[in-house]
Amino acid sequence: MNFSDTLLAKLASACDVVAFTGAGISAESGVPTFRGNDGIWTKFKPEELANLNAFMRNPELVWEWYSARKKVIAEVQPNAGHYALAEMERIFSSFAVITQNIDNLHRRAGSKNVFELHGNIERNYCMRCGRQFTDEQVLNGTAVPTCPCGGVIRPDVVWFGELLPEDEWRGAEKACQRADVLLSIGTSGVVYPAAGLPLEAKRSGAFIVEINPEPTPLTEYADEFLQGKAGEILPRILDHLKTKSQRNSHSQV
Ligand code: BJW
Ligand code: ZN
Fold first, then answer.
1. Pocket lining: 2 vs ligand 1, CB cutoff 6 Å
2. Do 179 and 232 belong together in one domain?
């Protein structure tokens, strides 16, 4: 796949860049997506697992699901897509990763400016007193972990019907409003309010690039649709950026 001259020119002149990511960027690390053919929710219905009512009704089942996912995520590694974004943070004057993922793989790849819209599976907290717990403290064989205060402990993730963490959301919105280019990577774009961010960036003048093997509801609004895998396309974009910054540094000598 060759990149268009317009895309290369937009990237060459961009100061503020945002990468908006979803489960697809972690697929090549071995983390299943939610809604793809081998997505998690072909086997489990989201309403049975990712909402507070479901947790109150059947905490054992929800904890079983999260314990299994915590184990998968602890064993996988960031892939070429995550690493390419971490390097881009060193190239652009301002670069933010806004992720819907809870797997912490962006930070593990070296990205620093990360907004986690849906929480982080490595954290847990008591629903009564708010005390934080590590995985070692909660994954001790008890089906539903409890706090010394008697409260039930839950994973620190955002379920349907819950508000997104305020600081992360505010930071993400600001980054989108000032972005010159937004890369929407590996998300089906159906879960709101996160799915509205690329459109908010577009309304503020950003050039929207979508990277996904499949079209999504965002595709018709994207300025460029790069059809394929994040782990293959992002390193190629990075190569172009590096070639360009090398050329610039030679011309300054
Ligand atoms: C690749 C690839 C490769 C594969 N390379 N790509 C009706 C209309 C509009 C909104 C609503 C509505 N009814 C209810 C709502 C609100 C609701 C919502 O949006 N629902 C819609 C689904 C209908 N949203 C909420 O409830 C949110 N809160 C909220 O709105 O608060 C206000 C409120 C308060 C009180 C009452 C009502 C409202 C909260 C949403 C929380 C979402 N949480 C989850 C679970 C997190 C914890 C966990 O992981 O367990 O977040 S749901 C799940 O979906 C997860 C994800 O972050 C999120 C998005 O999924 P994502 O990342 O897009 O993954 P997939 O699988 O869908 O897509 C993967 C893509 O990758 C595909 O396109 C592939 O093609 C692609 N791909 N391989 C690149 N190699
Ligand atoms: Zn407690």
1. no
2. yes
